[in-house]
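Researcher: Checking consistency across runs. Here is Diguanylate cyclase (GGDEF) domain-containing protein again:
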Amino acid sequence: MNTADLIFLLLRAATAMLCGVAAREAWERARLPGQPRQRRWRARCGAAVLLALGVFALEDGVGEALGRPGEPLRWRSWVWVILDLSIPAQVLAVLSTLRQRDRLEAELAAAVRSDPLTRLPNRTGFAEAATVALASAARDGRPVAAAMLDIDFFKAINDGWGHGAGDVVLRDVAAAMRAVLRPGDVLARVGGEEFALLLPGVDAMGAGPLLERLRAAAAAVPHPGAPGQRVTLSAGVAIVEGTGLAALETGLRNADGALYAAKAAGRNRVMVAG
């Protein structure tokens, strides 16, 4: 085997390897959830074609390089090497672009549903997650409570120590509350310093102990002012009757009324609606 034969064989082997990699990536893409059936079949057929091309390239490399001892390689063989090698390379480039697009779409979808500061769901994300939780609780026959929570005197924090300090307090309070929640609870930031919480499995009275733990968690967050000052929370809680957005909005509206009552009663407390 001369040098030209060796180069030809190596290029054919590289083509077969790239075809295998591209076929695997195409097959994995066909298995992604949410893919239309027609797109899945196209991806699978493409994977099969790539595998066939890889097998052909390897057989051709062995046949041309080893099956014609002493004969020079025909120029058409080199043309086909280049063309065949370009096919899996182009497929891999397209698949890489599609992966980047999928990642960007996922990031955009997450951004629409989440608050970038606290990394909690926003109002849209909360409505979606809470609706699912309400339906699940209804199937199991469990009660659901909704709560509205508000950081007390938050405007004074922004005015006294700047919005940067306020952002730190928001982020730390959100993290502190998230740490004491149960699996299945849904917490979201729905306003400047306002949070919404869905508590499946408990009624309004049963939610009291958990909300008290949330108040204690917030009180442990360092205040940007004097060491003697504390971050406090006021909360209102109500039962959610029924499923769907209308029931959720009614429950949150009742909880919001209880929150205002907690504010009027001196803040840093939990009030139960009606």
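Researcher: Does this match what you'd expect to see?
Model: One thing to look at in this run: Helices lie at 3-30, 37-66, 75-113, 123-140, 154-161, 163-180, 208-219, 244-264.
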